[in-house]
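Note to self: keep these together.
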Amino acid sequence: MSLEERNRKVAETFEKFKIDQWGKDGAVKCAQVATNVVEQKHQVSRAKRSKALGSRAFRGSTVWFTGLSGAGKTSIAFALEAYLVSKGIPAYGLDGDNIRTGLNKNLGFSKEDREENIRRVAEVAKLFADSGVVCLCSFVSPFAEDREVARRIHTDSQLPFFEVFIDTPLEICEQRDTKGLYKKAREGQIKGFTGITQEYERPEAPELVIQTVGQTIEESTMEVIALLESQGIIPRYETKSQGVEELFIYGNRLSSAIEEAATLPQIQITNLDLQWVQVLSEGWAYPLKGFMRETEYLQALHSNCLTLPDGSLVNQSVPVVLPVEENVKEQLSGATAISLVHNGRSVAILRSPEFYPHRKQERCSRQYGIYHTGHPYIKMIEESGDWLVGGNLEVFERIRWNDGLDSYRLTPNELRQKFRELKADAVFAFQLRNPIHNGHALLMQDTHRQLVERGFKKPVLLLHPLGGWTKDDDVPLEVRINQHKAVLSEGVLDPETTVLAIFPSPMMYAGPTEVQWHAKCRMNAGANHYIVGRDPAGMPHPDGKGDLYDPRHGAMVLKMAPGLNELEIIPFRVAAYDTSVGKMAFFDPTRKEDFDFISGTRMRGLAKAGKEPPKGFMAPSAWKILSEYYQSLKSKMDTN
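Structure:
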Protein backbone atom coordinates (compact mmCIF):
# COMPACT_ATOMS: atom_id res chain seq x y z
CA MET A 1 0.00 0.00 0.00
CA SER A 2 1.41 3.37 -1.01
CA LEU A 3 1.66 6.26 1.46
CA GLU A 4 -1.07 8.07 -0.48
CA GLU A 5 -3.41 5.08 -0.24
CA ARG A 6 -2.61 4.69 3.45
CA ASN A 7 -3.43 8.33 4.18
CA ARG A 8 -6.69 8.04 2.25
CA LYS A 9 -7.64 4.90 4.20
CA VAL A 10 -6.75 6.57 7.50
CA ALA A 11 -8.89 9.58 6.59
CA GLU A 12 -11.84 7.36 5.60
CA THR A 13 -11.53 5.35 8.81
CA PHE A 14 -11.33 8.43 10.95
CA GLU A 15 -14.36 9.99 9.22
CA LYS A 16 -16.33 6.82 9.91
CA PHE A 17 -15.19 6.95 13.53
CA LYS A 18 -16.27 10.59 13.85
CA ILE A 19 -19.69 9.79 12.41
CA ASP A 20 -20.05 6.81 14.77
CA GLN A 21 -18.93 8.77 17.80
CA TRP A 22 -20.05 12.34 17.13
CA GLY A 23 -22.67 12.16 14.35
CA LYS A 24 -22.62 13.47 10.77
CA ASP A 25 -23.00 17.05 11.91
CA GLY A 26 -20.11 16.75 14.32
CA ALA A 27 -22.37 17.16 17.32
CA VAL A 28 -21.17 15.47 20.45
CA LYS A 29 -22.60 12.00 21.04
CA CYS A 30 -20.23 10.40 23.57
CA ALA A 31 -16.58 11.36 23.07
CA GLN A 32 -17.00 14.99 24.13
CA VAL A 33 -19.35 15.50 27.03
CA ALA A 34 -18.34 18.86 28.46
CA THR A 35 -19.18 21.75 26.16
CA ASN A 36 -17.68 24.60 28.18
CA VAL A 37 -14.06 23.75 27.45
CA VAL A 38 -11.55 25.56 25.25
CA GLU A 39 -8.18 24.14 24.28
CA GLN A 40 -5.35 26.05 25.94
CA LYS A 41 -2.18 26.66 23.95
CA HIS A 42 1.16 26.04 25.62
CA GLN A 43 3.70 28.82 25.87
CA VAL A 44 6.57 26.32 25.66
CA SER A 45 7.45 25.12 22.17
CA ARG A 46 8.56 21.61 21.35
CA ALA A 47 12.00 22.97 20.52
CA LYS A 48 12.31 24.46 24.02
CA ARG A 49 11.15 21.21 25.58
CA SER A 50 13.77 19.35 23.59
CA LYS A 51 16.48 21.70 24.78
CA ALA A 52 15.37 21.22 28.40
CA LEU A 53 15.65 17.47 27.86
CA GLY A 54 19.20 17.90 26.60
CA SER A 55 18.51 17.37 22.90
CA ARG A 56 18.81 19.62 19.89
CA ALA A 57 16.15 17.61 18.05
CA PHE A 58 12.53 16.96 19.05
CA ARG A 59 12.19 13.21 19.55
CA GLY A 60 8.60 12.99 20.76
CA SER A 61 6.83 10.11 19.03
CA THR A 62 4.81 6.97 19.65
CA VAL A 63 5.73 3.40 18.76
CA TRP A 64 2.60 1.24 18.81
CA PHE A 65 3.33 -2.46 19.32
CA THR A 66 0.42 -4.67 18.29
CA GLY A 67 0.06 -8.45 18.16
CA LEU A 68 -1.41 -11.42 19.96
CA SER A 69 -1.07 -11.94 23.69
CA GLY A 70 2.32 -13.56 24.27
CA ALA A 71 3.75 -12.31 20.98
CA GLY A 72 6.54 -10.40 22.76
CA LYS A 73 5.23 -6.83 22.54
CA THR A 74 6.04 -5.76 26.09
CA SER A 75 9.38 -7.61 26.21
CA ILE A 76 10.57 -5.74 23.11
CA ALA A 77 9.04 -2.43 24.20
CA PHE A 78 10.67 -2.56 27.63
CA ALA A 79 14.03 -3.59 26.13
CA LEU A 80 13.73 -0.63 23.75
CA GLU A 81 12.82 1.63 26.67
CA ALA A 82 15.97 0.54 28.52
CA TYR A 83 18.11 1.13 25.43
CA LEU A 84 16.74 4.62 24.77
CA VAL A 85 17.08 5.70 28.39
CA SER A 86 20.67 4.37 28.40
CA LYS A 87 21.34 6.78 25.53
CA GLY A 88 19.84 9.72 27.41
CA ILE A 89 16.60 9.71 25.39
CA PRO A 90 13.43 10.01 27.51
CA ALA A 91 11.17 7.01 26.86
CA TYR A 92 8.25 5.41 28.64
CA GLY A 93 6.45 2.11 28.10
CA LEU A 94 2.67 1.85 28.40
CA ASP A 95 1.64 -1.77 28.86
CA GLY A 96 -1.89 -3.12 28.45
CA ASP A 97 -2.05 -4.84 31.83
CA ASN A 98 -0.55 -1.85 33.65
CA ILE A 99 -3.03 0.57 32.07
CA ARG A 100 -5.98 -1.67 32.93
CA THR A 101 -5.00 -1.67 36.61
CA GLY A 102 -5.11 2.13 36.74
CA LEU A 103 -6.40 4.54 34.13
CA ASN A 104 -8.65 1.96 32.44
CA LYS A 105 -9.57 -0.21 35.40
CA ASN A 106 -13.25 0.47 34.70
CA LEU A 107 -13.11 -1.06 31.21
CA GLY A 108 -13.73 -4.66 30.24
CA PHE A 109 -13.19 -6.50 26.96
CA SER A 110 -16.36 -5.81 25.02
CA LYS A 111 -15.84 -4.26 21.59
CA GLU A 112 -16.92 -0.87 22.92
CA ASP A 113 -14.63 -1.10 25.94
CA ARG A 114 -11.71 -2.21 23.76
CA GLU A 115 -12.27 0.83 21.53
CA GLU A 116 -12.38 3.17 24.51
CA ASN A 117 -9.28 1.50 26.02
CA ILE A 118 -7.28 2.21 22.86
CA ARG A 119 -8.65 5.73 22.49
CA ARG A 120 -7.64 6.67 26.03
CA VAL A 121 -4.19 5.13 25.61
CA ALA A 122 -3.67 6.94 22.32
CA GLU A 123 -4.55 10.26 23.95
CA VAL A 124 -2.13 9.60 26.81
CA ALA A 125 0.58 8.54 24.35
CA LYS A 126 0.01 11.76 22.42
CA LEU A 127 0.68 13.78 25.58
CA PHE A 128 3.89 11.83 26.24
CA ALA A 129 5.01 12.37 22.65
CA ASP A 130 4.12 16.06 22.74
CA SER A 131 6.30 16.44 25.84
CA GLY A 132 9.29 15.07 23.90
CA VAL A 133 9.16 11.50 25.20
CA VAL A 134 9.31 8.43 22.97
CA CYS A 135 6.15 6.60 24.07
CA LEU A 136 6.12 2.82 23.64
CA CYS A 137 2.61 1.32 23.65
CA SER A 138 2.19 -2.46 23.99
CA PHE A 139 -1.43 -3.39 23.32
CA VAL A 140 -3.08 -6.31 21.57
CA SER A 141 -5.34 -3.70 19.89
CA PRO A 142 -7.01 -6.33 17.66
CA PHE A 143 -9.13 -3.96 15.55
CA ALA A 144 -7.57 -2.14 12.61
CA GLU A 145 -10.04 0.72 12.97
CA ASP A 146 -8.91 1.41 16.55
CA ARG A 147 -5.26 1.41 15.56
CA GLU A 148 -5.95 3.87 12.75
CA VAL A 149 -7.75 6.13 15.21
CA ALA A 150 -4.68 6.04 17.45
CA ARG A 151 -2.55 6.98 14.46
CA ARG A 152 -4.81 9.89 13.49
CA ILE A 153 -4.80 11.26 17.04
CA HIS A 154 -1.04 11.65 16.60
CA THR A 155 -0.88 12.78 13.00
CA ASP A 156 -3.49 15.48 13.64
CA SER A 157 -1.03 16.89 16.17
CA GLN A 158 1.94 16.49 13.79
CA LEU A 159 3.45 13.77 15.97
CA PRO A 160 5.24 10.72 14.47
CA PHE A 161 3.41 7.41 14.94
CA PHE A 162 4.91 4.02 14.11
CA GLU A 163 2.84 0.87 14.04
CA VAL A 164 4.98 -2.22 14.77
CA PHE A 165 3.33 -5.58 14.21
CA ILE A 166 4.82 -8.35 16.34
CA ASP A 167 4.00 -11.21 13.99
CA THR A 168 4.27 -14.26 16.24
CA PRO A 169 2.13 -17.25 15.19
CA LEU A 170 -0.80 -18.18 17.41
CA GLU A 171 0.63 -21.63 18.16
CA ILE A 172 3.87 -20.08 19.45
CA CYS A 173 1.99 -17.56 21.61
CA GLU A 174 -0.11 -20.39 22.96
CA GLN A 175 3.01 -22.42 23.75
CA ARG A 176 4.45 -19.48 25.67
CA ASP A 177 1.20 -18.64 27.51
CA THR A 178 3.14 -17.11 30.40
CA LYS A 179 -0.09 -15.81 31.97
CA GLY A 180 -2.14 -19.00 31.41
CA LEU A 181 -4.74 -17.04 29.43
CA TYR A 182 -4.87 -19.25 26.34
CA LYS A 183 -5.53 -22.30 28.50
CA LYS A 184 -8.41 -20.51 30.21
CA ALA A 185 -9.77 -19.31 26.87
CA ARG A 186 -9.66 -22.85 25.43
CA GLU A 187 -11.52 -24.05 28.52
CA GLY A 188 -14.16 -21.38 28.04
CA GLN A 189 -13.26 -19.46 31.19
CA ILE A 190 -12.42 -16.31 29.17
CA LYS A 191 -14.86 -15.05 26.56
CA GLY A 192 -13.83 -12.97 23.55
CA PHE A 193 -10.13 -13.79 23.87
CA THR A 194 -8.16 -12.54 20.86
CA GLY A 195 -6.89 -15.34 18.66
CA ILE A 196 -9.28 -17.94 20.14
CA THR A 197 -12.81 -16.56 20.16
CA GLN A 198 -12.04 -13.04 18.98
CA GLU A 199 -10.47 -12.28 15.61
CA TYR A 200 -7.23 -10.35 15.37
CA GLU A 201 -7.16 -8.04 12.35
CA ARG A 202 -3.63 -8.10 11.01
CA PRO A 203 -2.16 -4.69 10.10
CA GLU A 204 -2.18 -4.08 6.36
CA ALA A 205 0.68 -1.61 6.16
CA PRO A 206 2.56 -1.23 9.45
CA GLU A 207 5.85 0.64 9.52
CA LEU A 208 7.57 -2.53 10.73
CA VAL A 209 6.82 -6.24 10.98
CA ILE A 210 8.88 -8.26 13.47
CA GLN A 211 8.88 -12.02 13.36
CA THR A 212 10.13 -13.14 16.76
CA VAL A 213 10.48 -16.86 16.09
CA GLY A 214 14.19 -17.69 16.04
CA GLN A 215 15.16 -14.20 17.24
CA THR A 216 16.30 -12.94 20.62
CA ILE A 217 14.66 -9.95 22.29
CA GLU A 218 17.82 -7.95 21.56
CA GLU A 219 17.66 -8.78 17.84
CA SER A 220 13.99 -7.82 17.65
CA THR A 221 14.67 -4.62 19.55
CA MET A 222 17.46 -3.70 17.15
CA GLU A 223 14.93 -3.78 14.29
CA VAL A 224 12.87 -1.08 16.02
CA ILE A 225 16.00 0.90 16.79
CA ALA A 226 16.93 0.78 13.10
CA LEU A 227 13.44 2.07 12.23
CA LEU A 228 13.72 4.99 14.65
CA GLU A 229 17.20 5.80 13.37
CA SER A 230 16.03 5.74 9.75
CA GLN A 231 13.20 8.13 10.59
CA GLY A 232 15.48 10.56 12.41
CA ILE A 233 13.77 10.03 15.77
CA ILE A 234 17.03 8.98 17.40
CA PRO A 235 20.62 9.49 16.25
CA ARG A 236 22.61 6.64 14.79
CA TYR A 237 24.84 5.32 17.52
CA GLU A 238 28.08 3.44 17.13
CA THR A 239 27.13 -0.06 18.19
CA LYS A 240 29.43 -2.28 20.19
CA SER A 241 27.29 -5.34 19.45
CA GLN A 242 30.07 -6.63 17.18
CA GLY A 243 32.80 -5.84 19.67
CA VAL A 244 35.20 -3.26 21.05
CA GLU A 245 38.38 -1.99 19.45
CA GLU A 246 41.47 -3.99 20.33
CA LEU A 247 45.02 -2.65 20.15
CA PHE A 248 46.69 -5.60 18.42
CA ILE A 249 48.32 -5.19 15.02
CA TYR A 250 48.52 -7.85 12.31
CA GLY A 251 50.08 -8.83 9.00
CA ASN A 252 52.66 -6.59 7.33
CA ARG A 253 52.01 -3.91 9.91
CA LEU A 254 53.00 -6.33 12.67
CA SER A 255 56.18 -7.55 11.00
CA SER A 256 57.36 -4.02 10.26
CA ALA A 257 56.54 -2.90 13.83
CA ILE A 258 58.58 -5.76 15.31
CA GLU A 259 61.52 -4.75 13.13
CA GLU A 260 61.06 -1.11 14.14
CA ALA A 261 60.90 -2.01 17.85
CA ALA A 262 64.43 -3.40 17.66
CA THR A 263 65.68 0.08 16.74
CA LEU A 264 63.68 2.06 19.29
CA PRO A 265 64.58 3.25 22.79
CA GLN A 266 63.11 0.95 25.43
CA ILE A 267 61.16 1.03 28.66
CA GLN A 268 61.46 -2.06 30.84
CA ILE A 269 58.00 -2.87 32.22
CA THR A 270 57.01 -4.92 35.28
CA ASN A 271 54.48 -7.75 35.60
CA LEU A 272 51.97 -5.19 36.88
CA ASP A 273 52.60 -2.97 33.85
CA LEU A 274 52.16 -5.99 31.57
CA GLN A 275 48.80 -6.71 33.16
CA TRP A 276 47.70 -3.19 32.23
CA VAL A 277 49.01 -3.71 28.69
CA GLN A 278 46.77 -6.79 28.53
CA VAL A 279 43.78 -4.85 29.84
CA LEU A 280 44.29 -2.10 27.27
CA SER A 281 45.11 -4.31 24.30
CA GLU A 282 42.08 -6.58 24.73
CA GLY A 283 39.63 -3.67 24.89
CA TRP A 284 38.58 -3.77 28.54
CA ALA A 285 39.36 -0.06 28.87
CA TYR A 286 37.77 0.89 25.52
CA PRO A 287 37.78 3.61 24.19
CA LEU A 288 41.29 4.16 25.57
CA LYS A 289 43.88 3.57 22.86
CA GLY A 290 46.84 3.26 25.17
CA PHE A 291 48.27 4.44 28.47
CA MET A 292 46.60 7.70 29.49
CA ARG A 293 47.88 11.04 28.35
CA GLU A 294 47.68 13.84 30.89
CA THR A 295 44.27 15.17 29.80
CA GLU A 296 42.78 11.66 30.01
CA TYR A 297 44.46 11.08 33.36
CA LEU A 298 43.02 14.28 34.83
CA GLN A 299 39.53 13.47 33.55
CA ALA A 300 39.65 10.02 35.09
CA LEU A 301 41.16 11.24 38.34
CA HIS A 302 38.83 14.18 38.92
CA SER A 303 35.67 13.26 36.99
CA ASN A 304 35.72 9.44 36.86
CA CYS A 305 34.79 9.86 33.17
CA LEU A 306 36.21 10.53 29.74
CA THR A 307 34.50 12.92 27.33
CA LEU A 308 34.28 11.52 23.80
CA PRO A 309 34.48 13.69 20.65
CA ASP A 310 30.67 13.71 20.31
CA GLY A 311 30.32 15.11 23.84
CA SER A 312 29.10 11.87 25.41
CA LEU A 313 30.61 10.46 28.58
CA VAL A 314 32.12 7.05 29.20
CA ASN A 315 32.96 5.90 32.70
CA GLN A 316 36.67 5.63 33.50
CA SER A 317 37.03 5.83 37.25
CA VAL A 318 40.64 4.66 37.62
CA PRO A 319 43.84 5.87 35.97
CA VAL A 320 45.48 3.43 33.56
CA VAL A 321 49.03 4.76 33.55
CA LEU A 322 52.64 3.74 33.03
CA PRO A 323 55.05 5.12 35.69
CA VAL A 324 58.72 5.64 34.82
CA GLU A 325 61.76 6.92 36.68
CA GLU A 326 63.26 10.40 36.24
CA ASN A 327 66.29 9.08 34.34
CA VAL A 328 64.04 7.24 31.84
CA LYS A 329 62.06 10.42 31.26
CA GLU A 330 65.26 12.38 30.68
CA GLN A 331 66.62 9.81 28.24
CA LEU A 332 63.42 9.37 26.22
CA SER A 333 61.94 12.87 26.10
CA GLY A 334 61.54 13.80 22.46
CA ALA A 335 61.28 10.21 21.22
CA THR A 336 58.48 9.62 18.71
CA ALA A 337 58.06 5.97 19.66
CA ILE A 338 59.21 3.66 22.46
CA SER A 339 59.45 -0.12 22.68
CA LEU A 340 57.91 -1.65 25.81
CA VAL A 341 60.02 -4.62 26.89
CA HIS A 342 59.10 -7.33 29.41
CA ASN A 343 61.67 -9.94 30.46
CA GLY A 344 63.87 -9.09 27.49
CA ARG A 345 61.04 -9.33 24.94
CA SER A 346 59.40 -6.42 23.15
CA VAL A 347 55.61 -6.65 23.57
CA ALA A 348 54.39 -3.30 22.19
CA ILE A 349 55.25 0.10 20.76
CA LEU A 350 54.10 3.27 22.53
CA ARG A 351 53.50 5.95 19.87
CA SER A 352 53.92 9.72 20.33
CA PRO A 353 54.80 9.37 24.03
CA GLU A 354 53.87 12.17 26.43
CA PHE A 355 55.63 12.51 29.80
CA TYR A 356 53.99 14.27 32.73
CA PRO A 357 54.47 14.39 36.53
CA HIS A 358 53.24 11.49 38.67
CA ARG A 359 51.76 13.40 41.60
CA LYS A 360 51.39 10.37 43.83
CA GLN A 361 49.72 11.93 46.86
CA GLU A 362 47.16 13.69 44.68
CA ARG A 363 46.50 10.49 42.73
CA CYS A 364 46.03 8.35 45.82
CA SER A 365 43.97 10.92 47.68
CA ARG A 366 41.58 11.16 44.74
CA GLN A 367 41.47 7.46 43.91
CA TYR A 368 41.58 5.99 47.42
CA GLY A 369 40.55 8.79 49.74
CA ILE A 370 43.77 8.24 51.73
CA TYR A 371 47.52 8.32 51.26
CA HIS A 372 48.83 5.49 53.40
CA THR A 373 51.56 3.10 52.34
CA GLY A 374 50.05 0.41 54.56
CA HIS A 375 47.60 0.01 51.67
CA PRO A 376 49.26 -2.52 49.32
CA TYR A 377 48.46 -0.84 46.00
CA ILE A 378 49.28 2.62 47.35
CA LYS A 379 52.60 1.19 48.46
CA MET A 380 53.30 0.09 44.86
CA ILE A 381 52.35 3.56 43.60
CA GLU A 382 54.69 5.16 46.13
CA GLU A 383 57.53 2.89 45.00
CA SER A 384 56.93 3.53 41.30
CA GLY A 385 58.45 6.25 39.11
CA ASP A 386 57.92 9.98 39.57
CA TRP A 387 56.77 10.43 35.97
CA LEU A 388 53.97 8.97 33.88
CA VAL A 389 54.18 8.33 30.16
CA GLY A 390 51.12 8.08 27.96
CA GLY A 391 50.57 7.31 24.30
CA ASN A 392 48.84 5.03 21.81
CA LEU A 393 49.72 1.36 21.99
CA GLU A 394 50.42 -1.10 19.19
CA VAL A 395 50.54 -4.54 20.82
CA PHE A 396 52.23 -7.39 18.99
CA GLU A 397 50.24 -10.36 20.31
CA ARG A 398 47.97 -11.62 23.07
CA ILE A 399 49.53 -11.58 26.51
CA ARG A 400 49.96 -15.16 27.72
CA TRP A 401 50.96 -16.15 31.25
CA ASN A 402 51.47 -19.88 30.55
CA ASP A 403 50.03 -20.85 33.94
CA GLY A 404 47.49 -23.35 32.65
CA LEU A 405 44.71 -20.75 32.89
CA ASP A 406 45.11 -18.84 29.61
CA SER A 407 42.11 -20.66 28.11
CA TYR A 408 39.93 -18.84 30.67
CA ARG A 409 41.31 -15.44 29.73
CA LEU A 410 38.67 -14.54 27.16
CA THR A 411 38.76 -11.04 25.68
CA PRO A 412 35.65 -8.84 25.60
CA ASN A 413 35.12 -9.70 21.94
CA GLU A 414 35.53 -13.42 22.60
CA LEU A 415 33.00 -13.18 25.42
CA ARG A 416 30.55 -11.36 23.17
CA GLN A 417 30.92 -14.11 20.59
CA LYS A 418 30.39 -16.74 23.29
CA PHE A 419 27.17 -15.04 24.39
CA ARG A 420 25.96 -14.95 20.78
CA GLU A 421 26.69 -18.67 20.41
CA LEU A 422 24.67 -19.33 23.57
CA LYS A 423 21.85 -17.15 22.13
CA ALA A 424 21.88 -15.07 25.31
CA ASP A 425 19.33 -12.27 25.40
CA ALA A 426 20.58 -11.04 28.79
CA VAL A 427 24.05 -11.29 30.34
CA PHE A 428 24.44 -10.74 34.07
CA ALA A 429 27.93 -10.47 35.49
CA PHE A 430 29.11 -11.43 38.95
CA GLN A 431 32.61 -10.25 39.77
CA LEU A 432 34.37 -11.74 42.75
CA ARG A 433 37.84 -12.24 44.10
CA ASN A 434 36.85 -14.81 46.74
CA PRO A 435 35.65 -18.42 46.70
CA ILE A 436 31.96 -19.02 45.97
CA HIS A 437 29.71 -20.20 48.77
CA ASN A 438 26.05 -21.10 48.37
CA GLY A 439 24.98 -17.61 49.43
CA HIS A 440 26.70 -16.19 46.34
CA ALA A 441 25.11 -18.95 44.26
CA LEU A 442 21.68 -18.14 45.69
CA LEU A 443 22.04 -14.53 44.55
CA MET A 444 23.05 -15.60 41.04
CA GLN A 445 20.21 -18.13 40.85
CA ASP A 446 17.72 -15.51 42.02
CA THR A 447 18.97 -13.02 39.41
CA HIS A 448 18.45 -15.62 36.68
CA ARG A 449 14.91 -16.22 37.96
CA GLN A 450 14.10 -12.50 37.97
CA LEU A 451 15.33 -12.05 34.41
CA VAL A 452 13.24 -14.98 33.18
CA GLU A 453 10.17 -13.56 34.91
CA ARG A 454 10.81 -10.26 33.11
CA GLY A 455 10.58 -12.02 29.76
CA PHE A 456 14.18 -12.91 28.90
CA LYS A 457 14.43 -16.33 27.30
CA LYS A 458 18.12 -17.13 27.78
CA PRO A 459 19.86 -15.18 30.56
CA VAL A 460 23.53 -16.14 30.82
CA LEU A 461 25.77 -15.67 33.85
CA LEU A 462 29.28 -14.29 33.36
CA LEU A 463 31.17 -15.69 36.34
CA HIS A 464 34.21 -13.45 36.19
CA PRO A 465 36.85 -13.79 38.90
CA LEU A 466 39.54 -11.15 38.96
CA GLY A 467 42.82 -12.53 37.66
CA GLY A 468 45.35 -9.72 37.92
CA TRP A 469 47.52 -8.78 40.87
CA THR A 470 45.97 -9.25 44.32
CA LYS A 471 47.36 -8.79 47.80
CA ASP A 472 49.30 -11.64 49.38
CA ASP A 473 46.56 -12.92 51.71
CA ASP A 474 43.93 -13.30 48.96
CA VAL A 475 43.22 -16.81 47.67
CA PRO A 476 45.39 -17.44 44.57
CA LEU A 477 43.74 -17.40 41.16
CA GLU A 478 44.38 -21.09 40.38
CA VAL A 479 42.69 -22.16 43.63
CA ARG A 480 39.73 -19.90 42.98
CA ILE A 481 39.27 -21.16 39.41
CA ASN A 482 39.38 -24.79 40.58
CA GLN A 483 36.90 -23.97 43.34
CA HIS A 484 34.55 -22.27 40.85
CA LYS A 485 34.81 -25.27 38.50
CA ALA A 486 33.80 -27.54 41.37
CA VAL A 487 30.75 -25.38 42.06
CA LEU A 488 29.74 -25.75 38.41
CA SER A 489 30.48 -29.49 38.37
CA GLU A 490 28.17 -30.05 41.32
CA GLY A 491 25.38 -28.15 39.57
CA VAL A 492 25.13 -25.41 42.19
CA LEU A 493 25.35 -23.10 39.19
CA ASP A 494 24.08 -24.26 35.81
CA PRO A 495 27.12 -24.93 33.57
CA GLU A 496 24.88 -24.65 30.47
CA THR A 497 24.05 -21.01 31.18
CA THR A 498 27.29 -19.93 32.87
CA VAL A 499 30.49 -18.66 31.27
CA LEU A 500 33.52 -18.90 33.57
CA ALA A 501 36.27 -16.52 32.48
CA ILE A 502 39.12 -14.52 34.02
CA PHE A 503 39.07 -10.72 34.26
CA PRO A 504 42.74 -9.71 33.78
CA SER A 505 42.75 -6.42 35.70
CA PRO A 506 44.90 -5.93 38.78
CA MET A 507 42.97 -5.42 42.02
CA MET A 508 43.42 -1.93 43.41
CA TYR A 509 41.26 -2.12 46.58
CA ALA A 510 39.89 1.34 45.81
CA GLY A 511 36.34 0.79 47.01
CA PRO A 512 33.46 2.55 45.21
CA THR A 513 35.88 4.16 42.74
CA GLU A 514 37.15 0.78 41.60
CA VAL A 515 33.67 -0.79 41.53
CA GLN A 516 32.83 1.51 38.62
CA TRP A 517 35.89 0.25 36.73
CA HIS A 518 34.85 -3.36 37.23
CA ALA A 519 31.35 -2.61 35.97
CA LYS A 520 32.54 -0.64 32.93
CA CYS A 521 34.83 -3.50 31.85
CA ARG A 522 32.00 -6.05 32.08
CA MET A 523 29.82 -3.69 30.05
CA ASN A 524 32.53 -3.66 27.36
CA ALA A 525 32.39 -7.46 27.41
CA GLY A 526 28.67 -7.46 26.62
CA ALA A 527 27.12 -7.65 30.08
CA ASN A 528 23.94 -5.64 30.51
CA HIS A 529 23.18 -6.57 34.13
CA TYR A 530 25.65 -6.39 37.01
CA ILE A 531 25.38 -7.90 40.48
CA VAL A 532 27.01 -5.76 43.15
CA GLY A 533 28.03 -7.38 46.40
CA ARG A 534 28.85 -6.01 49.84
CA ASP A 535 32.14 -4.08 49.93
CA PRO A 536 33.13 -5.41 46.47
CA ALA A 537 36.49 -3.63 46.25
CA GLY A 538 37.26 -2.85 49.84
CA MET A 539 39.69 -3.93 52.54
CA PRO A 540 40.39 -3.19 56.18
CA HIS A 541 41.77 0.24 56.96
CA PRO A 542 45.60 0.15 57.07
CA ASP A 543 45.45 1.63 60.57
CA GLY A 544 43.20 -1.19 61.75
CA LYS A 545 40.21 1.12 62.22
CA GLY A 546 37.58 -1.13 60.67
CA ASP A 547 36.68 -1.05 56.97
CA LEU A 548 38.44 1.45 54.74
CA TYR A 549 35.17 2.06 52.85
CA ASP A 550 31.54 1.82 53.88
CA PRO A 551 30.49 -1.65 52.66
CA ARG A 552 27.23 -0.24 51.25
CA HIS A 553 28.74 2.50 49.16
CA GLY A 554 29.98 0.44 46.21
CA ALA A 555 26.43 -0.53 45.25
CA MET A 556 25.06 2.94 46.01
CA VAL A 557 27.67 4.75 43.91
CA LEU A 558 27.29 2.35 41.01
CA LYS A 559 23.60 3.18 40.66
CA MET A 560 24.49 6.87 40.28
CA ALA A 561 27.74 6.62 38.34
CA PRO A 562 27.82 8.44 34.99
CA GLY A 563 28.73 6.67 31.77
CA LEU A 564 27.31 3.27 32.76
CA ASN A 565 23.86 3.72 31.28
CA GLU A 566 23.93 0.45 29.34
CA LEU A 567 24.26 -1.53 32.56
CA GLU A 568 21.42 -2.35 34.94
CA ILE A 569 22.67 -2.63 38.50
CA ILE A 570 21.20 -5.52 40.48
CA PRO A 571 21.41 -4.89 44.24
CA PHE A 572 22.99 -7.44 46.53
CA ARG A 573 20.59 -9.30 48.81
CA VAL A 574 22.07 -10.44 52.10
CA ALA A 575 22.24 -14.22 52.46
CA ALA A 576 23.19 -16.21 55.53
CA TYR A 577 23.03 -19.79 56.76
CA ASP A 578 19.44 -20.57 57.75
CA THR A 579 19.72 -23.07 60.59
CA SER A 580 16.00 -23.87 60.43
CA VAL A 581 16.35 -25.45 56.97
CA GLY A 582 20.08 -26.22 56.88
CA LYS A 583 21.04 -24.15 53.85
CA MET A 584 21.91 -20.64 52.71
CA ALA A 585 18.90 -18.37 52.38
CA PHE A 586 18.09 -14.68 52.05
CA PHE A 587 18.11 -13.06 55.47
CA ASP A 588 14.71 -12.59 57.08
CA PRO A 589 14.94 -10.00 59.90
CA THR A 590 11.66 -11.25 61.41
CA ARG A 591 13.42 -14.46 62.46
CA LYS A 592 17.00 -13.30 62.73
CA GLU A 593 17.72 -15.86 65.46
CA ASP A 594 17.57 -18.59 62.78
CA PHE A 595 20.44 -17.13 60.75
CA ASP A 596 24.14 -17.76 61.19
CA PHE A 597 26.45 -15.26 59.48
CA ILE A 598 29.60 -17.23 58.68
CA SER A 599 32.38 -14.67 58.32
CA GLY A 600 35.42 -15.02 56.11
CA THR A 601 37.61 -15.29 59.21
CA ARG A 602 35.50 -18.14 60.57
CA MET A 603 35.47 -19.88 57.19
CA ARG A 604 39.27 -19.70 56.95
CA GLY A 605 39.59 -21.01 60.48
CA LEU A 606 37.43 -24.05 59.70
CA ALA A 607 39.37 -24.69 56.48
CA LYS A 608 42.78 -24.47 58.19
CA ALA A 609 41.61 -26.85 60.92
CA GLY A 610 40.33 -29.34 58.37
CA LYS A 611 36.80 -29.03 59.74
CA GLU A 612 33.59 -29.05 57.73
CA PRO A 613 31.29 -26.00 57.52
CA PRO A 614 27.56 -26.44 58.15
CA LYS A 615 25.98 -28.65 55.50
CA GLY A 616 24.64 -26.53 52.66
CA PHE A 617 27.14 -23.69 53.12
CA MET A 618 29.35 -24.65 50.16
CA ALA A 619 29.49 -27.41 47.56
CA PRO A 620 31.47 -30.25 49.23
CA SER A 621 34.05 -30.65 46.44
CA ALA A 622 34.52 -26.86 46.33
CA TRP A 623 35.06 -26.81 50.09
CA LYS A 624 37.63 -29.61 49.78
CA ILE A 625 39.71 -27.53 47.34
CA LEU A 626 39.57 -24.50 49.62
CA SER A 627 40.32 -26.51 52.75
CA GLU A 628 43.34 -28.20 51.17
CA TYR A 629 44.73 -24.80 50.18
CA TYR A 630 44.43 -23.34 53.68
CA GLN A 631 45.85 -26.49 55.27
CA SER A 632 48.85 -26.26 52.94
CA LEU A 633 49.39 -22.70 54.16
CA LYS A 634 49.19 -23.85 57.77
CA SER A 635 51.66 -26.64 57.05
CA LYS A 636 54.14 -24.17 55.54
CA MET A 637 53.82 -21.87 58.55
CA ASP A 638 54.34 -24.77 60.95
CA THR A 639 57.52 -25.88 59.17
CA ASN A 640 58.88 -22.34 59.22
